[in-house]
């Protein structure tokens, strides 16, 4: 395959979580993989991959297995969702109201014993800097995909404005000079 040193990055958000109504972030909940037609549509929209990476989360590994049944993804801890610390496992309604935060304040905000979106962006940027040339798929979380977009856009706060749906595809071309071209965002297959 001719890549000219570029990386074509395909970011896929995991299938819907079988949720319990509580904040889950790093809680390892399973995915609902019952929509075979949606997985088939996603699979048909993708080229063959040179490398498939996944978050260690069960929901991401299950999604990767449904999209590429014959491929074992390389698991990367840096692809975990944001840790919401003490807020994980509590009802969403119990998260304290912090008032109006602008984009930079929201990106820097750290839940008690958790991590900020800025932290997620830093670890995502580090892994993006090590990707090989070719076609690379990443099965991860909305926060990680937004963090990859922040790298491509050159600014963290703006990436928080993107909606990233379950089983959606976001595609970024990474040129050899580490310049980025966002090809598509949140395409539902």
TrEMBL record:
Gene Ontology molecular function: phosphatase activity
InterPro entries: His_Pase_superF_clade-1, His_PPase_superfam, PGM_Phosphatase
Annotated Gene Ontology cellular component terms: cytoplasm
Stored Pfam families: His_Phos_1
Name of the protein: Bifunctional RNase H/acid phosphatase
Organism of provenance: Pelagimonas varians
């Amino acid at each position: 395959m001719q890549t000219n040193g570029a990386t074509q990055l395909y970011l896929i958000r995991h299938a819907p979580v079988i949720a319990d109504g509580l904040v889950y972030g790093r809680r390892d909940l399973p995915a609902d993989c019952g929509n075979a037609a949606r997985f088939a549509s996603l699979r048909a929209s993708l080229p063959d991959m040179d490398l498939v990476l996944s978050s260690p989360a069960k929901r991401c590994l299950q999604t990767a297995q449904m999209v590429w049944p014959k491929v074992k993804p390389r698991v990367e801890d840096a692809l975990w969702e944001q840790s919401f610390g003490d807020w994980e496992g509590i009802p969403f309604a119990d998260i304290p109201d912090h008032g109006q935060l602008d984009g930079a304040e929201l990106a820097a905000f750290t839940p008690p014993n958790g991590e900020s979106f800025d932290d997620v962006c830093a670890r995502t940027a580090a892994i993006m800097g090590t990707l090989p040339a070719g076609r690379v798929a990443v099965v991860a979380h909305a926060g990680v995909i937004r963090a990859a977009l922040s790298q491509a856009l050159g600014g963290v706060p703006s990436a928080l404005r993107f909606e990233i749906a379950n089983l959606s595809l976001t595609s970024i071309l990474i040129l050899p000079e580490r310049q980025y071209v966002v090809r598509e965002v949140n395409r539902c297959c």
